[in-house]
C-alpha cells in the first residue's frame, strides 16, 4: 500500500476524486445554494467586519511596533478607514446612482446607434452572408435586455442598502472589537479546535495568511488606484459616466487575465456612441493603465505571486464564473490559493500518518 501511494496513479486517483466531489457539489447547487444565501445573509455583517479587521490588522501592528499604543493605533486606522469610506459613500453613491439611471434611460438610443452602424457596414460589405443582419439585430436586442436588467438590478441593490442600515451599522463595531482583541480571537478559535488538531490548524491558518494575506491587501489597493486613475482619465477625456466606468475598471481589475477585457467592453461600448475616435482613446487608456498596473503597481503593492500555474488559474476562473458569476470570478483565485494550501497540508498529514503506521507496525 505504501508503495502505491508514491505512484502517479495514486495522485491521479486523488485528483479525480476531488474533481468528482466538485462536480457533485455543482450538480447539487439548487439544493445548497438557497441555504447558503440565508446563512450568508445572517452572517454577512460578521464576515465583512472580520474581513475588514483582517485587512487592517497589519497596519495596526505596524503603528504599534513603531511606538504608538495599540489602542491609539487602532483608533487612527479605524477613523481613517471608516471615515474615508463613509465620506466616499456619502459623496459618491448619489452620483453613481444618477449615472446608472441615466445609462439605463439611454440604452435604447445606444442600441439604435449600433443598429445604424451595422446596417452601414452591411450595405458597404456585400459579401456578408444572408441573414447576418437578423442575427446581429437579435444579439443586440439580447445585449440591450441583459444590460438593462443588470443596470436595474444594480440600482435596486444600491437603493436597498438603506433597508440593511442596521446590519451595515454594526460592521464598524465588529471590526473595532476584532482589531482590539485580535490575538484573543485567534486563541479562542484554536481553543475550539480539538487538541490533537491544533498544531496542524495553526500551521494551516499561518500558511493561508502567508499565501493570500498580502495578495488580498495588495489587490484591493491596486484596484482602488486603477479605478481612481481610470475615473480621472475618463473625466479629462470627456467620457460619459466617468465614475461608473472607473468603478467597473477597478472592480474587474481584480480578475486575472480576463479582468482588463471585461472592464474595457462596457467602456468601449459607451465610447462608440460618441465617436470611433473615443474608442481609440479608451483602448489607449486601458492599455496604459494595464501597463502601469503590471509593471509598476503590482510588483510593489501586490508583491510576491501566489505561485499558481496560469492553467489552474484559468480553470478556477471558469469554474468560479459558472458557480457564482462575477463574484465567482473575483473569489476564484483566493479560493484556489486556499485549496492549494489545504492539499499541501493534507499530503503532509497523510505522509506523516503513513510513517507513523510504519513505525507502530509490529514486526
Automatic annotation (TrEMBL):
A GO cellular component annotation in the UniProt record: membrane
Membrane topology of the entry: Multi-pass membrane protein
Keyword line: Membrane, Transmembrane, Transmembrane helix
Organism, as annotated: Heyndrickxia coagulans 36D1
Source species, domain of life: Bacteria
GO biological processes: transmembrane transport
Name of the protein in question: AI-2E family transporter
Annotated family: Belongs to the autoinducer-2 exporter (AI-2E) (TC 2.A.86) family.
Membrane-spanning parts: 12-32, 38-60, 72-90, 161-179, 220-237, 269-292, 312-339
Cell compartment(s), UniProt: Membrane
InterPro entries noted in UniProt: AI-2E-like
